[in-house]
Amino acid sequence: MATIIINASKYIIILMMILYTKSCYDIFKQENENEKEEKLNKQIIYVFIMHFLSYLTIAVTRPDEVKEIVIFYGLQILVATMYMYLYHYFYPYSSRVITNNMNCLLLIGYTMLTRLDISFAKKQFLIATASIILVSAIPYIMDRYKNLRKYGTIYGILGILSLSTVFVLGKEQYGSLNWIQIGGISVQPMEFVKILFVFFIASMLSQSREFKQVMITTAFACAHMGVLVLEKDLGGAVIFFIIFISMIYVGTGKLRYLLLFISGGALMAGIAILLFKERLFGHVLVRINAWKNPWADIDHQGYQIAHSLFAIGSGGYFGSGLTKGTPRMVPVCESDFIFAAISEEFGVIFGLALILVCFSCFISFIGISMRVRNRFYKTMAFGFAICYIFQSFLSIGGVTKFIPSTGVTIPLVSYGGSSVLSSVVMFAIMQGISTIENKEAKKIEKERRDIEESAKQALKKIKEQ
Q1: Where does 118-192 show beta strands of DSSP type E?
Q2: Closest Cα to residue 330, out of 288, 296, 294?
Q3: Rounded distance, CA 360 to CA 354, Å?
Q4: Do 81 and 130 contact (CB within 8 A), yes or no?
Q5: What is the Cα–Cα distance from 429 to 202, expressed in whole angstroms?
Q6: Three-state SS for 291?
Q7: Exposed site from 86, 164, 430, 434, fewest CB < 10 Å?
Q8: Cα separation of 396 and 308, whole Å?
Q9: Do residues 51 and 114 make contact, with C-beta atoms less than 8 angstroms apart?
Q10: 93 phi and psi, to 5 degrees?
């Protein structure tokens, strides 16, 4: 019976994921509001069917844990339903596309973590739920306080100081000194500083786009990246660099800045490698060698990436079925390499659909950036779009051997408290920008209609006279 449920469920889950992904892109081209709402409602059904079948599969394979699994499943559905309903009740101008995608990614993450280790899933659920509650006021704050753009220098200083805390409270993990220990809680400052970093650049460029302002912004950005390099967090440094050059280019509209900073970044990276190759980049060289040829040392340096590829390949198009794979063969499969575990048991088709869902989040963020009129929010929205998609690219690219592994997580899907909290904050900020823009657009539309109506009334009176 369990085998029948597993085999039948995996095909239905893939179908629901395909339908969900297709609807993400149908919504972008849908102009009729009623039809768009209908598709958004169907998305919820697709996600809940996937989620139910996944937990049914896990429950039938773990008869001793059925009660625990059912209660945990119920709590997830309760929180997801309340979040989607209450969020749009209090913020009617927020984006339902972002809400649905955030819920979809979180529920996929909970499902895979429950399959791997339910204690990880419970911790992730508690952190994510607490984060959603804590950041729920962000759109309200952004709508009420219009002077957030004025504190660019403060954002920059706070960011540098926060990153530097690892030199006092930090602990080394996987070759990088990028975690701090506070009591029994481990926190990765980079995850939160990247949000301040986007605020900083958006604030500086919204005040002025002159050469002097760009150079001041560059100096602060270099300080951020310099601290990350000293921490040996090269993945974080690359994310900050890509955010910086992208926002500078969009914020100023000058191609020469983009070319200048790319050339300067390449030059500084080359100098750093020549001078501090072993001291700062020893663990990075190990990852690069493993990426170039994992089969040369498959029992040691190449073990993780080789087994990641084995997992993805063994799953095939339709997956081995939830609980039927061996994802634990891949080290750190719950966080950095969770995409390998998902692809093995849910299949490559599901994995590709997951990538497209992540890309739809990016498109939603870019769409908000293009619509918003305020320069500060426009630049900020673009910065978060780049931050989100590039982090997803680094994580999935490393797992699939497209690029060397960087130790970066997939936002909202991978295990990690700091990553989940910072991602929820990022999505809440984007909802805040969307709320402000949609409310302003509705106000302008109402004013336009009022003017047209007044003009019609005036014309009618003239004709009557």
Answers
A1: 170-173, 176-182, 185-187
A2: 294
A3: 10
A4: no
A5: 13
A6: helix
A7: 86
A8: 11
A9: no
A10: -95, 5
Query: Rounded to an integer, what distance in angstroms lies between the CA atom of residue 412 and that of residue 76?
Result: 14
H/E segment holding residue 266: helix 255-292
* Model pTM above 0.85: yes
Within 10 angstroms of residue 46's Cβ, the number of other Cβ atoms is 21
Q: Give CA–CA dist 108/110, Å, rounded.
A: 6
Q: Which amino acid is at 18?
A: I
Q: Which residue has the tokens 């020893």?
A: 282
Query: At a CB cut-off of 8 Å and minimum separation 6, what does 94 contact?
Result: 87, 88, 139, 431, 434, 435, 438
Q: Convert the pLDDT of each residue in 381-407 to its tens digit.
A: 999 999 999 999 999 999 999 999 888
Q: Whole-angstrom Cα distance, residue 105 to residue 338?
A: 12
Burial state string for 415-449 with b = 16 or more CB within 10 A and e = fewer than 16: bbbbbbbbbbbbbbbbbbbbbbbbeeeeeeeeeee
Alpha helices in 165-233, H assignment, sequence order: 166-169, 189-207, 211-230
Q: How far apart are CA 232 and CA 115, in angstroms?
A: 32
| Cα–Cα distance for residue pair 22/296, rounded to 1 Å | 41
Question: Which residue, chain included where needed, has tokens 């990538």?
Answer: 355
Residue 189 one-letter amino acid:
P
Q: Token digits for 439?
A: 């409310």
d(CA 97, CA 103): 10
Q: Which two tokens stand for residue 373?
A: 């009129």
pLDDT tens readout for residues 211-244: 999 999 999 999 999 999 888 888 889 999 999 9
Longest Cα–Cα distance in the chain: 94
Please work out, in degrees rounded to the nearest 5, the angle formed at the alpha carbon of residue 459 by the alpha carbons of 458 and 462. Answer: 90
Torsion of the alpha carbons at 94, 98, 104 and 105, rounded to the nearest 10: -130
